[in-house]
Write a structure and sequence with these properties.
The chain is α+β, with helices and mostly antiparallel strands. The chain has three domains: 4-89, no CATH class; 120-203; 209-418, D-amino Acid Aminotransferase, Chain A, domain 1, CATH 3.30.470. 33% of the residues lie in helices and 22% in strands. The protein contains 13 helices and 15 strands. It has helices spanning 14-20, 49-63, 76-87, 94-101, 103-113, 159-165, 170-190, 250-266, 298-308, 312-320, 357-366, 383-388, 404-418; strands spanning 4-9, 26-31, 67-69, 121-124, 140-144, 154-156, 200-203, 209-218, 221-232, 239-244, 272-281, 286-293, 337-345, 371-374, 392-401. The strands form three sheets. It has an eight-stranded antiparallel β-sheet, with helices on both faces. Strands 4-7-5-6 form a four-stranded antiparallel β-sheet, with helices on both faces. Strand 8 and strand 9 (221-232) form a beta hairpin. Helix 2 crosses helix 3 (76-87).
Length: 449
């Protein structure tokens, strides 16, 4: 039987590994560049969304492509939506992708359809590096209207802190503008009621635990895949772990899906995978949306595969061909609990030490079920990480275990073999994504404030 010929856009890291498992059913072609490696990221110098999509459309028939998909937040999700529309293939509407990725516009839509899950918010009306306007309601959480990976997202206490946060060198400003401009040009055409994406916005800080709702929309109906718990490094807004299954009670998960369904319907998102980040405060019972991502959450997909036997990449391919994701083949679960462990360094004056070949060999021998990504950098290249993110992510490791206790034991042993500190520290104090938030993790269903 002939294989489907499928185009993958900006297909790297987790996505490259996830889609590679389907080489038996698909002939894959790739387009796009890696933002995090040189010289591939030099393509950012000349990248424009519309010409990129038009070039792909011109060669689509020659190549025999029948579908396109992408899990890439910065460029891929929008490019895939535009190309699918151009070719008449199944896909997410470009306007829906734009509405999700324009964080201020998304807040405005959420206020109309689910105000109980929204926060006070507004525009910081100044271009990069311009004077910060007066009259903002400090303390606040500042973030770019269009960004990914929590870049430049920060809790700031006053005007001086925000001013310091928004001072950029010419090189930083060049990178920021070139990351945003491809989106901005399409948004001006397809989402004209939205403000410029070349701005920051502010949000009222929220004190609560953070979660991810993963799901999909097929034939206009939103379905939940699951909820993953987000755990932060103590005293920071940096992710330390993503744990599955979630400790969040089922009724709260159902509320999250209801809010997601209302928002997605309002923006015309009627086909595709989505990820909703949100807070839940057990003391008040309040659920607050952080943002919507109009694509598969790549880092979390492997957790569902290990625990539930769900292959989200197979589901993404089904959607790309207009097929029900529920018909994608399921795998045999390999774990009762799984986590994505994020290794971070918080000292800008020293680089994290990478494991030796001997350490990696022992690690692979003792933990053959691992998924490990390493991101080494020297001290000179770390400055932007600390400016934009407040830390350096030097590694990510996925493991499974019989249960949460077994998983923690395996993680500690695996981390020791790599020479890295195990990402288990929340027993002391933990800080939320936007503001200080202290809690104790529980070993049974439910969360404590």
């Amino acid at each position: 039987m002939a294989k489907n010929r499928t185009l993958l856009l900006f297909n790297f890291d987790w996505d490259a590994e996830g889609f590679s498992r389907h080489n038996g059913q698909h002939d894959f072609d790739n387009a796009g560049f890696d933002l995090f490696s040189f010289p591939s990221n030099a393509h950012l110098l000349h990248f424009q969304m519309s010409p990129f999509v038009e070039r792909l459309a011109r060669v689509a028939l020659k190549k025999g492509w029948r579908a396109v998909t992408s899990c890439h937040e910065q460029f891929g999700a929008l490019a895939a939506a535009l190309l699918a529309e151009r070719m008449g293939w199944p896909g997410t509407k470009p306007e829906a992708v734009l509405a999700c990725q324009h964080k201020l516009y998304a807040r405005q839509i959420l206020e109309q359809v689910a105000p109980e899950a929204n926060v006070a918010h507004g525009l910081i009306d100044a271009r990069y590096g311009a004077p910060v306007p007066d009259g903002l309601p400090y303390p606040l959480f500042a973030k770019p209207i269009k960004a990914a990976f929590s870049v430049l997202a920060k809790h700031v206490a006053n005007h001086d802190e925000l001013t310091a946060h928004t001072r950029f060198g010419w090189g930083e400003r060049w990178v920021i503008e070139h990351l945003v401009e491809p989106f901005e040009r399409i948004a001006r055409q397809r989402l004209p009621s939205a403000s410029s994406a070349h701005r920051l916005m502010w949000e009222a800080p929220v004190k609560a635990e953070q979660f991810n709702l993963d799901g999909y929309v097929f034939e206009g109906k939103a379905h939940a895949i699951g909820v993953v718990d987000s755990i932060m490094y103590p005293g920071t807004q940096a992710f330390m772990r993503f744990d599955y299954p979630s400790l969040l009670p089922d009724p709260i998960q159902a509320r999250a899906l209801d809010i997601a369904a209302r928002f997605l319907k309002a923006v015309g998102f009627d086909h595709g995978l989505f990820n909703m980040e949100f807070f839940y405060d057990a003391a008040s019972g309040r659920l607050t949306v952080i943002e919507f991502n109009p694509r598969l959450a790549s880092q979390l997909a492997d957790l569902y595969r290990r625990v539930e036997g769900l292959d989200l990449y197979a589901m993404a391919l089904n959607l790309a061909y207009g097929q029900d994701p529920r018909t994608a083949p399921r795998l045999a679960p390999s774990a009762g609990a799984a986590s994505s462990f994020v290794f971070r360094h918080f000292d800008p004056l020293t680089a994290a030490k990478m494991p030796t070949p001997a350490q990696l060999s022992d690690f692979q021998k003792h933990f053959p079920d691992n998924l490990l990504l390493r991101f080494p950098k020297d001290i000179k290249s770390l400055a932007r990480d600390y400016k934009w993110l407040g830390s350096h992510r030097y590694g990510v490791m996925h493991l499974g275990g019989r249960d949460a206790t077994d998983l923690e034991q395996r993680c500690r042993a695996a981390s020791a073999q790599l020479g890295w500190p195990a990402p288990y520290a929340e027993q002391s104090v933990t800080n939320c994504h936007q503001a200080p938030c202290y809690f104790a993790r529980q070993s049974t269903a439910g969360v404590a404030p």
